């Protein structure tokens, strides 16, 4: 079942960041290209890009810099797949020297991609610890290691961040394979 999420009250200091699962989308809406999950061959565009966005290249990302956020885009129709929050990804360009084997396979010229949606309760993973080179979710302080397949280092997240394998096509970043696991969080029952 495909759930959308709405996040409210992101107050990291007092730990009140909370996302709610809304009603499942009807099956017909899931065929909308803008809502379909990233597909092999999709190009990537910055979430801040205006109309007719330029696909991202590895050099557009700062080396060892903070994560950037992107959407997948169908290369034929130019449909940006921003119809589902679960398609938002974060990108980092890092020194591949410290990557584990899986991360090396998934990276393209040092660029790694992960779901931007925390697997705890669905906040965006917006913080970057440059000293430890870890991703941090500001809501309840889950830390993820982007050099080790997005594995959870500390905090309440129950599993690694889903990775999105990349490749470079004609100098541009492209999706090589779908997310390695389901994007989003498990609804508590
Ligand atoms: S939503 Fe709780 S740690 Fe990310």
What does this structure look like?
The structure is a single chain. This protein is mainly beta. It has one domain (5-175): 3-layer Sandwich (Rieske Iron-sulfur Protein), CATH 2.102.10. Helices cover 3% and strands 26% of the residues. It has one helix and twelve strands, in the order E-E-E-E-E-H-E-E-E-E-E-E-E. It has one helix at residues 101-106, and strands at residues 5-8, 18-21, 43-46, 68-73, 89-93, 111-115, 127-129, 134-136, 143-145, 151-154, 166-169, 172-175. The strands form four sheets. The chain has a four-stranded antiparallel sheet, with no helix packed on it. A hairpin with a 6-residue loop joins strand 8 and strand 9 (143-145). It is globular. Residues 8-16 have low confidence and may be disordered. FE2/S2 (inorganic) cluster is lined by residues 17, 118, 120-123, 137, 139-140, 142, 155-157.
Q: TL;DR?
A:
The protein has one domain (5-175): 3-layer Sandwich (Rieske Iron-sulfur Protein).
Mean pLDDT: 88
Taking the alpha carbons of the first and last residues, their distance comes to 14 Å
Which sheet architecture does the biggest sheet show? 4 strands, antiparallel
User: In percent, how helical is the residue content?
Assistant: under 10%
Keywords:
single chain; 3% helix; binds FE2/S2 (inorganic) cluster; mainly beta; globular; four-stranded antiparallel sheet; 189 residues; 1 helix; 12 strands
